[in-house]
Design goal:
By secondary structure, the chain is an alpha/beta fold. The protein has 9 helices and 6 strands. A hairpin with a 5-residue loop joins β3 and β4.
């Protein structure tokens, strides 16, 4: 795909010649189980119509490549139905060119929602010469001319880290398609954000103080689920501490109020019988001290 100025925006390709019968139904595949850290909608949810890649893969991938689709640029508020329609359009592109269905493993829209493309254990046609040993994360839209949303970056970050030891090796590097092919893919604006996808945000944030976390998260405008959970945790800790301090202040205030009320009562009663209030207070202190001594004497020694 080329831009108006002739720039090659995306180049898809198979690893080798597609099977002679591209319409053949592939082996049954198992969709990934739902993940706690990131939700990837199934192929069935968007209405996949064609085969799921051309080959079953074994073992973990050695690399992860980021792409852009150079298709319709949906808004962050686009509906799920609109995104499903775009997934089918992407599938049609892959089917017409290679006969093996959608090219990419997972597609992330500006809303931050992610959809399964070709299954993780099936070979796609995203990164020519590397489809058998790599997996792909595709951003729906054109990021040579548009900026990825923070929701997209956050979702891709979660996918990349959840995928370690699940779909790719722990040390699998994340790269842009342009690093291995003559293409602008994934677009200059997305390519500039690859470090934000690579960073282990949760480990990074957990190493900081609660206040440092809050400052960073507010300044970056982060909206991912994991980050929202971290913000909630910080807020909860701050709320608990504020509640504890408020309860302490209330207790101290109540104690002071009771003491003032008691003193006022003693003074009133003392004056009513013609006794110096200070003498009464002194006798009261002596009595309280004596009671305290008696309590201590009555307490058995600890074992």
């Amino acid at each position: 795909m080329r831009g108006d100025d002739g720039t090659v925006l995306e180049v898809l390709g198979p690893d080798d010649v597609p099977p002679a019968n591209p319409q053949a139904v592939p082996e049954p595949t198992v969709e990934p189980a739902p993940l706690a850290a990131v939700n990837i909608a199934t192929r069935a949810s968007w209405g996949a119509r064609y085969q799921d890649g051309d080959l079953t893969l074994t073992g973990l991938a050695a690399e992860v490549f980021v792409h852009h689709s150079v298709t319709a640029q949906l808004s962050p508020s686009a509906s799920i139905a609109a995104e499903a329609e775009q997934m089918r359009a992407l599938e049609s592109v892959g089917q017409s060119r290679f006969g093996t269905g959608i090219s990419y493993n997972v597609v992330v829209f500006p809303s931050g929602r992610a959809y399964q493309g070709v299954s993780w254990n099936r070979r796609g046609t995203h990164t020519g010469g590397r489809n058998s040993t790599a997996r792909s994360i595709c951003f729906a839209g054109n990021y040579e001319t548009n900026n990825p949303t923070e929701a997209q970056i956050s979702t891709a970050n979660a996918i990349y880290h959840v995928g370690r030891q699940r779909w790719w090796t722990q040390g699998a590097p994340l790269r842009g398609h342009r690093n291995v092919s003559e293409t602008a893919c994934p677009g200059q604006n997305l390519y500039a954000r690859l470090d934000d996808i690579r960073i282990d945000l949760e480990d990074f944030l957990m190493a900081l103080t609660d206040e440092q976390q809050r400052i960073i998260l507010v300044n970056t405008g982060e909206t991912a689920t994991r980050t929202e959970q971290l913000i909630t945790k910080v807020d909860r800790l701050e709320a608990d501490e504020a509640a504890r301090r408020a309860a302490q202040r209330n207790h101290e205030a109540a104690s002071a109020a009771r003491e003032r009320a008691m003193l006022a009562t003693i003074r009133t009663l003392s004056q009513s019988v013609g006794v110096d209030p200070e003498v009464v207070m002194a006798r009261l202190d002596e009595t309280l001290n004596a009671l305290g001594d008696d309590d201590e004497a009555a307490t058995p020694p600890s074992a």
